[in-house]
Write a structure and sequence with these properties.
This protein is of the alpha+beta class and 738 residues long. It has 23 helices and 30 strands. It holds the Pfam family PUA_NSUN2. InterPro entries: MeTrfase_RsmB-F_NOP2_cat, MeTrfase_RsmB-F_NOP2_dom, Pre-PUA_NSUN2, PUA_NSUN2, RCMT, RCMT_NCL1, SAM-dependent_MTases_sf. It is found in: Nucleus; Secreted, Extracellular exosome.
Length: 738
């Protein structure tokens, strides 16, 4: 009753919507300026359905005013004609990765991880992916470093939600993210090659945002009011403790793990942390983060609580629980009775975020630091096995191990050593055979279970692959270009797409093929073009990977002025005569084919856009065009002050739906079903179900593929409307159709 009164009178039925601007993005400052000065300014004094729209306010505790909240609900944003322009801006920029719509309290755990670009990070229960996106942004804090030394491995147990996670992560165009599909409570130990030896991978940072009863989301999740019982927490406590335990096992000494839930129930929160601290025997400690995130209103963790059954029975201690109830209630659910132990745990260092303190949802966060190995794993598991040298195509298959983790609990016995030697000999012989077949790593000892989509393999290009030489020559790639990090998803036949991962993720992929079910990794950098071979290179540049590739490209670059950029982004296939004389001169002596179009700001013209732009393009006989997805075009035009908003009309909506259907069919003609296609099928069904952080429609995912292949379609320039004249489609997930 207290919660109902507090939340539905003082605060209103729904918490404010959060908007976050990723700082490492190349145009983050420009997006933030546009958001504050233009779109927020237009909301001043506006009334919708008789209710005054409150001006969005920055979150006082979020660094550099990069996160804001507004009382505008998604329903009002979608349906109100006065807010249509603002809504289109949010949808379009979100799809580009320049804005993330995320509830305010959900932004807290990644901030408390204190991520640096060199950190190896595990996100144990990552879907739908807003927190994962924050972690990726932190890795790329320095935009001048295309390949940070750190990486994010984002895991989720639900195969379908993994594709939603892929969709979120791909907006950020990072070569340092891998999405895997495992049960977090038994996620396997991974191995990496360190100077020719295999060693177990320990993570510097782990985000453990576990499944919970969700009672902290009752302001926006109506189902909580209907379905919540005390039984929910009792059933989840064991799983939460197992996941957290597995997390700290894989945490490096000195590393930091953040445990979080969107629940306020101590059985899911302090009880889990207290149990973890107790059995760690001093290996873990709660970090004091009271000085971090100044401005965030928080309550300390609690030290006393009772346990209640569904029928209303309360229990203060484990000894009071009758034997017939001891399967429902476990000893770890109760507070610690020993006062000295309790004081040493410092449970008050946990954070409780209450809804009425700053108009948010309810949330719990605890930050754990690992001081030494866990007592049941005092000898850190390391496999000192000399790695064989690999030649030829190296394939990493997507698979899932039956036995999950392989934590070393004690020193092996003599019998175990003998058995280990025999197994090693068998694996070595299998490895030699695998080398000949181009398969990475020894095959699994048991038949693996695959569920969900069967993933295509990840095949790294061999050093002597003839495919790469024309690419290297055509684009004059720098000798430092890490060609060994290129991979495809095709083991046989023509390679249609080339992807790139960081050196560190390549290491993980090559050494764990028998353990991991990898859903997606890498950023697309080149796509095969059917007409390209006659111009000297069969592969054209892909826009999503251009900022990663650009530092290594020394040819096929055309510097353009801002007026040229506007022409490229507003016209589908403009003739060369429309461009500036300088651009025409540069193009004149250049062979046809894929090109890089670079805009550098002029400090002497402060009214022009003051951040660089890099676009993928195509030079034809008489024309020059940019291969840029629609929402990215709109983004650049907004940053240059070009008005791109156009109110919807029924005729335009009908045309847009028809064009989407055509583009989707064209995308499906790709040889092999790429992950974007699987993602498109699944994300549309799931985003409405998840609700909390998933606000992005996959409509443009197939559109992006088609626009990037547009040189293969002779009639495209006749049939396609201008990217600016197209209305920005409302990507409300309830209306998305294939």
């Amino acid at each position: 009753a207290l919660l109902r009164s507090r939340e539905h009178t003082a605060l209103g039925a729904w918490p404010p919507a959060g908007v976050r601007v990723p700082l490492p993005r190349s145009h983050a400052r420009e997006v933030l300026h546009c958001l504050k000065e233009k779109y927020f300014g237009e909301l001043r004094g506006l009334e919708v359905d008789g209710q005054k729209v409150e001006m969005p306010q920055p979150l006082s505790w979020y660094p550099e005013e990069l996160a804001w909240h507004t009382n505008l609900s998604r329903k009002i944003l979608r349906k109100s004609p006065q807010l249509e322009k603002f809504h289109q801006f949010l949808v379009s920029e979100t799809e580009c990765g320049n804005i993330s719509r995320q509830e305010a309290v959900s932004m807290i755990p990644p901030l408390l991880l204190n991520v640096d670009p060199h950190h190896k990070i595990l996100d144990m229960c990552a879907a739908p992916g807003s927190k994962t996106a924050q972690l990726i942004e932190m890795l790329h804090a320095d935009m001048n470093v295309p390949f940070p030394k750190g990486f994010v491995i984002a895991n989720d147990v639900d195969n379908k939600r993994c594709y939603l996670l892929v969709h979120q992560a791909k907006r950020l165009n990072s070569p340092c993210i891998m999405v895997v599909n495992h049960d977090a409570s038994s996620i396997p130990n991974l191995q990496i090659d360190v100077d020719g030896r295999k060693e177990v991978l320990f993570y510097d940072r782990i985000l453990c945002d576990v499944p919970c009863s969700g009672d902290g989301t009752m302001r926006k999740n109506i189902d909580v009011w209907k379905k919540w019982t005390t039984q929910n927490s009792l059933q989840l406590h064991g799983l939460q403790l197992r996941i957290a335990t597995r997390g700290v096992e894989q945490l490096a000494e000195g590393g930091r793990m953040v445990y979080s839930t969107c629940s306020l129930n101590p059985i899911e929160n302090e009880a889990v942390i207290a149990s973890l601290l107790e059995k760690s025997q001093g290996a873990l400690e709660l970090a004091d983060v009271s000085s971090e995130l100044p401005g965030l209103k928080r309550m300390p963790g609690i030290t006393k609580w009772k346990v209640m059954l569904k029928d209303g029975q309360w229990f203060e201690e484990w000894k009071d629980v009758p034997s017939n109830r001891q399967t429902q209630i476990r000893p770890t659910m109760f507070p610690v009775k020993d006062e000295e132990k309790l004081k040493a745990m410092n449970l008050e260092r946990c954070l409780r975020i209450l809804p009425h303190h700053q108009n948010t949802g309810g949330f719990f966060v605890a930050v754990l630091i690992k001081k030494s190995p866990m007592p049941w794993n005092k000898r850190q598991p390391k496999v000192h096995q000399k790695l064989p040298q690999r030649t030829g195509d190296t394939e990493v298959t997507a698979a899932n191990s039956d036995n999950g983790s392989e934590c070393v609990t004690e020193e092996p016995t003599l019998a175990e050593n003998e058995e280990s030697k025999k197994m090693q000999e068998l694996q070595n012989s299998d490895t030699e055979q695998s080398k000949k077949e181009g398969v990475c790593g020894p095959p699994p000892s048991k038949k693996m279970k695959l569920f969900g989509f069967k993933e295509d393999p990840f095949v790294f290009l061999p050093e002597d692959d003839p495919l790469f030489l024309p690419i290297q020559k055509f684009y004059a790639l720098d000798p430092s270009f890490p060609k060994m990090n290129l991979l495809t998803r095709t083991q046989e036949g023509k390679k249609r797409q080339l992807y790139m991962v960081s050196k560190e993720l390549r290491n993980v992929l090559l050494n764990n093929s028998e353990k991991m079910k990898v859903i997606n990794t890498g950023i697309k950098v080149w796509s095969r073009n059917s007409d390209g071979e006659q111009f000297g290179c069969a592969f054209r540049l892909a826009q999503e990977g251009i900022y990663t590739l650009y530092p290594f490209i020394h040819a096929r670059i055309i510097n353009v002025c801002i007026e040229d950029v506007k022409i490229l982004l507003t016209q589908e296939n403009p003739f060369l005569s429309k461009f500036s004389s300088e651009t025409q001169k540069k193009v004149k002596d250049m062979a046809m084919g894929s090109i890089v179009l670079k805009y550098d700001p002029d400090p002497e013209k402060p009214d022009d856009l003051q951040c660089p732009i890099v676009l993928c393009g195509w030079q034809g006989k008489t024309s020059l065009r940019a291969f840029v997805p629609k929402n990215e075009r709109l983004h650049y035009l907004r940053m240059m002050g070009v008005e791109v908003f156009k109110a919807k009309r029924k005729e335009e909506e009908s045309e847009s739906k028809m064009e989407e259907e055509i583009q989707h069919r064209l995308a499906q003609t790709e040889e092999g079903m790429d992950v974007e296609d699987k993602e498109h099928d699944l994300v549309t069904k799931m985003e409405a179900e998840i609700g909390e952080e998933s606000t992005h429609s996959p409509v443009e995912s197939s559109t992006m593929e088609v626009e990037n292949k547009i040189e293969d379609l002779d009639q495209s320039s006749k049939n396609a409307n201008s990217h600016v004249s197209e209305e920005s489609k409302d990507t409300d997930t309830s209306n998305v159709k294939d």
